[in-house]
Amino acid sequence: MIDIIGLLVGEISGTSRLIVDIAIYFGLFVIVAMALNFQYGNAGVPNMGCAVQVIAGGFTVSAITTRVTFMIVKAAGVELLPFASDFDWVYNNQYNVSVLTNSFLETHMLLGISLLLFSLGVALVMGAAIGYIISLPAIRLRSTYLMITLITMADASQIFGRNIPAITGGTLGIFVPNVFAWYPGDRGVLLAVVTLFIGLIAFFIFKTMLNSPYGRLMRAIRENDVTVGSVGKNVVGIRRNILIFASGITALSGVMVAFYYSYVVDNAFMRADWTYWPWLMLILGGPGNNAGTFLGCALIIALRRGIIVYKWYLERFLFFPIAYAESLILGILLILVIIFRPRGLIPEKLLYIPGINYRKMVKEGTAIDWREAKKAEQKTNRSKFWGKKERSESE
Amino acid sequence: MVVIPPLWVNMITYSSLITILSIGFTLTYLTAKIPNFAHGTYAGVGIYVVWTLSKIYGFSPYLGFPLSFIIGGIVSVIIYVLVIRVITRLGGGAVVLTISTLAIQILLTAMLSIYVYWARGVHGTYGMGFMLKEYDFKIGGYSGIFPMSFLICVVVVILLHILLTRTRTGVAMRATAEDPELASILGINIDTIQKISWFLTGGLACLAGAMYPLWFQSYPNSGGAIMVSIMAGSLLGGFNNIYGAIIGGFGVGFSEIVVTAWLQKVIGPGVGRWRPLVPMVILVAVLLFEPRGLTGVYERFKASKIGEKAFAMLRRKEE
To answer: In the predicted model, is pLDDT for residue A9 greater than 70?
Structure first.
C-alpha cells in the first residue's frame, strides 16, 4: 500500500514545489484566518493575539511531543543520548532527533500517526487553556483594551519561550521529530494534505456553529451587546467561550507549523507573521464571511510566496532589501483595503435560519411591520391596565 | 556634592522618555478615542532625524530636538489627514481605526529601515544599532542627557498644563475630548483641534525619540519595542487623565529598572532576562484590579470614608 503511494508521488521540484509550498502555507494561514473570522467577523472579539495560540501549538510540539517521543523510543530499546537536564535537552537534541528518533520512526508508521494525533489533541487543550488565561484580564472591558492586552501577550509568550530552555531550548531552538518519516514520497505533499484536511474540518465546524442559534447569538453580540445582555444572555461568558474555542483551533495551525519547519524557536512565530498577515487576509476577504477569508488568504499567500520565490528577479527593480518591501506592502494594503473596501472583497452574507427564507424575504421586500404589531398589543394592554382610570377621567 | 547612583540616573532618564511618550499616547486616546499603536514608531522618526543631523552632517544632537518636534508633528498630521480622518468619516469603528494605526506602524518602520539602508549607500554611515553618546556633553560627571531629559520632561508637563488650562485652544481641546458634537455646536472647529492635538502628540513622541539614541542603542524598530512600556505607563495612570500619565510613566520606569535591579540582588542575576515582562505584568495587573488605573484608585479613595476625612482635614489646614 505504502509503495503505491510512493510511486504515485515522485520527486517534485520547480513549479510543483512552489504549488505544494503555497498549499501548505494556505492551509496553515487559513486555519488562523478562519478562527479570526469566527472571533472578529462574527462575534466582534478583536483577537490581536493570534500569535499567542500559534505559539502555544508550536511549543506543545517542542516541549511535550518531543519528550513523549524520546520516552517511547527509549522504551523501545534505542540508545538515546541523555535528555533530562536543560543542557542535555538542548545540546543532544539534534543527534537524538535527526539521527536516532527519525530512523526509528521510518519503520513505525502507526507511532508517527499517533504522535501527530496526540500533538493535535494536546495543542487543542493547550490552546483553549491559553485562550482562557488571556481572556481573564480584558474580556469584560472595551474592545480596544482587549487589543492592547492581547498584543502584549504575544510578546510575553515569546519571552517565556526564549528564557525557559525546557520549552524550546531558549534562543537555540529545538528540532522536532519527523512524524511523516514513514512516508516514502515527498513529505511536503503529505503535510499539505493533512493541513488542508484540518482546515476543512475546522471550516465545517465553524460553519455549523455559525448556522446554529449560538451563531445568531454571536452576531447579535457583535451588533449590540447591551441589548443581548438586557434579554438575559451572559455576554462576557459567550465572548470568553468564543475566544477559548477559536484559540484551540488556532493552536492546531501551530502544530503543523512546527512539523513543517521540523524545528521550533520562538523567533519563528513573529507577531507580524502570525497576527498582522492573518488580519490583512480577514479584512481583505471580508470579515464575517468564510468564503471571503478563503479568497483573501489565497491571494495574500500567493503574493507572499511569489515574492519570496522570485526574490532575485524582483530585487533588480528595488534599491532596498525585499523584506522591507514586504512590510511596505502589508501596511499599504491594510490601509487601502480599510479605506476603499471596508466590507472586503466578498461582503457578509445573511445567516441560514431554518424555517425562515430570510433571503427571499429581503429580496421581495416583505415588510413585517413589527412596530405596528407591538403597538396594537401595547394598546390593548394599556387599556386593560389603565381602563378604570381612563373611565374615571372621562366621567 | 551628592553622588546620584548610576541606577537612578538610568531610571530617571528612561522614565522621562516614557513619561513624555505616555502623555502623548493618553492625549491621542482622549481626543481620537483610539490607542495609537504607531505612537512608539513616531519616536523612531525622531531617532533618525537626530541621526541624520549628527552622524551625517555633524551637528550637535541637541539642535535636532526642536527640528524633530516639528517633523514629528508634521508626520503625525499627515497621518491624521490621510488615514485617520478618512476612516473616521467613512464610519470605521474603534477596532478598524486601531488596526489602521497598526498598519501605519508597520509602514513607518519599513520606511525608516529603507531610509537607513539608502543613507548607508549614499553617505556610508551605518544606522542600525547606533548610539550618540560621544556627541553628548558632560555636566559634573554625568552625561548631559540625564539632566536635560528630566528638564525637558518637566517643561513639557508645565507647558502642556498651561496650554490645556489657560489658553482658548487648550480649553477647546478638552471640550472636544469630552464631547465632540457638543463642542462643534459651541462653534469649535473640531478638525482644527484634532489637527493640533495630533501635531502635539506626534511632536512630543518625536522629541522623546530624539533623546533616545543619546542614552540607548537605537534601531528603526526601537520606538515600537518600547510601545508596551508606553501603554503600561498610560494605563497605570488611567487612560483618561494626562496627569496620571506622568505618575504612570515614572512608575513604569521605576519598576522596570530599579525594581528589577533590586530583585536581581535579592533573588539572583537570572531575573534580569525577565525585564521585558515587567510592563506587561503592570498592564495585566492594572486591567485585572483597577481598569481606570491610579486615577480610579484616587477617585475611590476620595469617595471612601477615610478619604473624605483626610480631604476634610487637608481643607481645614489650608484655612
So the answer is: no
